[in-house]
Amino acid sequence: MKKFLFFLSKIFAIIILLAVVLDVVYTKAYLQTNKRGKIGYVYNSKPKTIDIVILGSSRAYYHLVTPIFLKEGFNTFNYGMEGSKLFESDLILKLLLAKENKIKNVILEVDLSLSSETEYSEANALKFMPYFWDSKIIRDQFEHLPENNIEYFLPYYRFMKYETKLGFREMLSNAVDKKGSDQNDGGYLGLFYSNPELKLDLSNVEPRRNKYYEEIKSLCKKNDINLIAIMTPVCKNTKGMDYFQKINKIYPEIHNYEDVIVEDKYFSSCAHLTDEGAKIFTARILKDFFNK
Asked: Which of 173, 212, 181, 171 is nearest to 56 (CA)?
């Protein structure tokens, strides 16, 4: 029996050792490039001066056209991600500041995320996982979450759990410095199709105070960053449009642009502009905040 237990303990020790080695190898691979995704671009780039940092969900990703800002002479990058919550926006800003970037302005899309019942987006949160053991800031952001259980602390487990996103193929692409598509056009992605059935129902959702938005406000104030918090357009068929007025009752400083574009031809879906609509919207943001 003792021999059997000794044998099992050796097998367990070998598995743990192998997991530690694989964890180190994978983590080192993800630290090699800033060309793959937006989080790697934040984490592995040298510090620089950035005129405009764009943060938010797909309603920032698809709505704020980086090349237009660049053409006007503003060093800009769009860190918006589809499905992103304010949890991820807050963490990106913390990492940018920790990497000693000098940021002049932050444009933060903050509207529909204020009604979200989920604190963070797993699909986007996992993008920070390769840097988990290299960054105390990332560990601290996840520490208090009830979902943040021992699986994140087991060596190599996070790479196995999210194998399709973080596994061998993606690790190898990082290791060989292969360029990804997330950084094309300065992080902006245009939509070139239109859905004829434009519908959005906000009548049963309520905005609420959000600690990550308030953390972003504090970070901007502390670091002398001009924060421009905005609500971006929705189609005219949206039900419950008073949702946006409710936001302003909680946070009156958020600029409401929900109705600055109303023609259906400029919408890909009720919550997302087409590329043409995004260009019109971006021109309005430039005019209102940067061409004074």
From this structure: 212
Whole-angstrom Cα Rg for the chain:
21
Cα–Cα distance measured from residue 5 to residue 217, given in angstroms and rounded to the nearest whole number: 56
**Inter-residue contact 54 to 66 (CB < 8 Å):** yes
How many secondary structure helices (H) and strands (E) does the chain include? Answer: 13, 7
Alpha carbon of 185 to those of 3, 62, 190: distances in Å?
62, 11, 9
Looking at the DSSP assignment, which residues form a beta bridge with residue 108?
Answer: 55, 229
Confidence of residue 51 (pLDDT cuts 50, 70, 90): very high
Question: Where does 2-289 sit in CATH, by number?
Answer: 3.40.50.1110
Q: Distance (Å, rounded) from C-alpha 288 to C-alpha 292?
A: 7
Residue type, 50: I
Amino acid, single-letter form, for residue 292: K
Q: Measured in whole angstroms, how far is the alpha carbon of residue 212 from the centre of its chain?
A: 13
Contact criterion met (CB below 8 Å) for 203 and 241: no
Helix 211-222 crosses helix 86-98 at what angle (to 10 degrees)?
20
> pTM for this structure?
0.93
Where along the chain do its domains lie? 2-289
The DSSP element (H or E) to which 168 belongs, if any, is: helix 168-175
pLDDT in tens, 71-119: 999 999 999 999 999 999 999 999 999 999 999 999 999 999 999 878 8
Task: For residue 151, give Cα distances in angstroms to 148, 157, 161, 165, 222.
Answer: 8, 6, 9, 17, 34
